[in-house]
Amino acid sequence: MSIRRRRSHSAFTLIELLVVIAIIAVLIALLLPAVQAAREAARRAQCTNNLKQVGLALANYQDQFGSYPPGGITATGITSPTEFANPWDSGANQLCFRAMILPQMEGNAAYNAMNLSINPTAVNNGAQYTAWNTVFSSWLCPSDGKNGNGRVSNGYSSGDETTANWGPSPINPATGKVSDTMPVSNYAGSFGDNYCGGILAGTNLPWETPYNGSPAVGQPRIGWNGYWGTSFGPPDGFTKGVGTMRGFFDYRGTQKTPNIASVTDGTSNSIIVGEVLPSNAADCNFWMQNGGYAGTTVPLGFNSNVIRPIPGSTCSATGGTSWQNASAPVGCRFGASAKGFVSLHPGGSNFSFADGSVRFLKNSINMATYCALGSKAGGEVVSSDAY
After folding, report:
1. Are 211 and 225 in contact (CB under 8 A)?
2. Are 111 and 277 spatial neighbours (Cβ–Cβ below 8 Å)?
3. What pLDDT, on the 0 to 100 scale, is given for residue 131?
4. Rounded mean pLDDT of 181-195?
5. Which of 168, 159, 156, 196 is nearest to 293 (CA)?
């Protein structure tokens, strides 16, 4: 009797086993979000540290040279006046602020390999090609799993409308052909609350005040001339010398570079660099000025890649009437709305301010407050609890 009793209790029953498995599954389901949240917290901390380095490098550059780096170096002397020189002339190197502050971020080797007096895409130069293809981890956000670890396909050679990045590329000395990859970055300089759309989008983007009009009574102005921090403005939107650079960078190099004295809103209230997603824009290339900047007149976190590019359409590199102009629809990675700040962090993005601090701004931030943080000398009053 006692022997049979011991044998009857020597193993789990099927029901007991199923209960244990169910409990383990529930515990895993409860634990998984916590693990994912912990991993994202670590990625966000790394991203914050990266932006801290960029912000301090910009501050050091300003201390060393007496001004912030230019948005792009134009071909001075080719046209008159020189401040309106064409940044795409052969004598312009087109390099954006990222290239200028490499020495302040321990990137001296790559910086020294670049010839700053010529356009790196115009020469068959092995040293420049090697530097071009260097990946800098401090310029990449680990939360972005679509950034190709710093190198994605080049749209000019791959024809990929959906994920490739477009931009001037050097010749590979080994093949004699344009590079088939494009180095990208998750951090872009801010041109502030200048228009992202304005005349580029026909009249304006939906949330912007018309470039040739005034806001409705009681409504704040969203957007200032000229577009992307350039000197261009009314009456036609492209008149030189009318636009004012509200942020820190002019992507075409048409404006005088600002210094710390010009930041009258206070360095702790002025955004200088923020997060972007290369997969949401057609040009986030690392080196060149066309991929280096974004603004605060696009709502924070706006998804500019909701319209799938179709070759030959207005949301396309080959549509003929695309590339940030009036025909490119809102929500297209080839449209002006792609020049906003966005990240894959839940709820918002990290920003570096001109004082070197890094803060997380929520996607729900009020547009007027967001634009006020984008301007360096707008005279707006922004309380610390407004964002």
Report:
1. yes
2. no
3. 86
4. 95
5. 196
Structure confidence by residue, pLDDT tens digits, 279-321: 999 999 999 888 899 999 999 999 999 998 888 888 888 766 6
β-pair type (358-362, 187-190): unpaired
The alpha-helical segments, DSSP class H, found in the chain are 2-8, 14-65, 97-100, 108-113, 126-132, 155-158, 367-374
Which tokens hold the place of 45?
A: 């901390």
User: Which residue type occupies 141?
Assistant: C
User: 191-222 pLDDT, tens per residue?
Assistant: 999 999 988 888 789 999 998 888 988 899 99
DSSP letters along 130-166, please?
A: HHHT---GGGS-TT-TTSGGGEEEBHHHH--TTT-B-
Q: What size, in residues, is the chain?
A: 387
- Separation between Cα atoms, residue 376 and residue 266, nearest integer Å: 7
* CA-to-CA dists, residue 113 to 64, 93, 103, angstroms: 21, 14, 12
Residue pointed to by tokens 């000019």: 156
pTM: 0.88
Contact 142, 43 (CB under 8 A): yes
User: In DSSP terms, which residues pair with 294 in a beta bridge?
Assistant: 190
Helices (H), 236-284: none
**Residue 235, preceding peptide bond in cis (omega within 30° of 0):** yes
DSSP 282: S
